[in-house]
Amino acid sequence: MYKRVFGIVLDSIGIGSAPDAAKYGDTGSDTLGHIGEYFKGEWSLPNLQKIGLGNIRVENSIPGVPPIENPLGYYGKMTEMSAGKDSLDGHWEMMGLPMMYELSTYPNGFPQDLLDKIGAFAGRKIIAQGPYSGTEVIKDYGEEAVRDGALIIYTSADPVMQIAAHEDVVSVEELYKICEYARSLVNEAPNIIGRIIARPFIGTKGSDFKRTANRHDFALAPTGTTDLVRLQTAGQTVIGIGKINDIFSEQGIDEGYHNESNRDGMDHVDRVMQQDFTGFAFTNLVDFDTLYGHRRDPEGMGKELMQFDQRLGQVMAAMQPDDLLLITADHGNDPGFKGSDHTREQVPVLAYSPSMQTHGSLGVRSTFADFGATVLDNFKLNVSVGTSFLQELK
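Given the sequence above, the corresponding structure tokens read:
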């Protein structure tokens, strides 16, 4: 048994179209592959490569990340069984709670009665409200929002409602209260929304407007018991870093840390690694998704991955022999693909510990739940969903 398990989710870093990608219009999506093509193979992820990232796809290998003869760890990919391609269903499935029904999406904008209720509660005008890029919507509507003290409400192809307001006009605390109210309206059919996202912004006009780190996700509460709760109930310490707390509505989490950025998130990982605990530390690094994937920026996404890879080297050097590191993703967001939304992809899964004596393939896992099943198995807990690969790690 490993004393500590560290799980890191590289938010949106998919590794190629899922078998059912056509259902989502995502055939041909390949986040890692298209980033590699953009760099013409001239980029470097040496630590991910050492664990085995390039060995996941020997044929049609990731440009610039070829397979190596003797990886340090175990490698494979996982296929999502949930009915979606959002962070919420991806993380829930990892933790043993697949979401087998579609959440609500609003390609034509939100129902007027829903907006009227939010506007009445807030006592504020609502503008925008349709599908929009988060950076473009504040560029186009920010000045009006400041002038009129209004809320900008918009969505994407995902089951989310995003509510943006200028911090000098609508305080962060007020915006959070409005989002909490909106959350209470969309927990049952016909409107079941995965996340209400507070999007505070600052600036003076147009292109000067920028979103702040005071984002907060008000997620649908887990509809069943997650592996985080199972771990906590069994007396294991559970630590959430990044938007993990939001995604799981703080259920099953003993300590939580908000990330200002991926770098800040890795700083939290470093600090947690210095703690003496037995249990599971679960981290989400969201910048890959919000700053680069949705903006279809392969250069930025690739550079952010290289920055993470450098920090990964520090993590690997600091690990104890009884530590286990698991790295994966929650969905794709291919910067070389059409549109600006998540892509239905398989995701990599990598496992490493300094105590490993060998290496090998974990194959293609049929569900993200194998991730959480492995964590449960490590702590001698019963697995309800998924198949553990703990015994394959030697």
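The mean pLDDT is 96. Try to locate this feature in the token string yourself.
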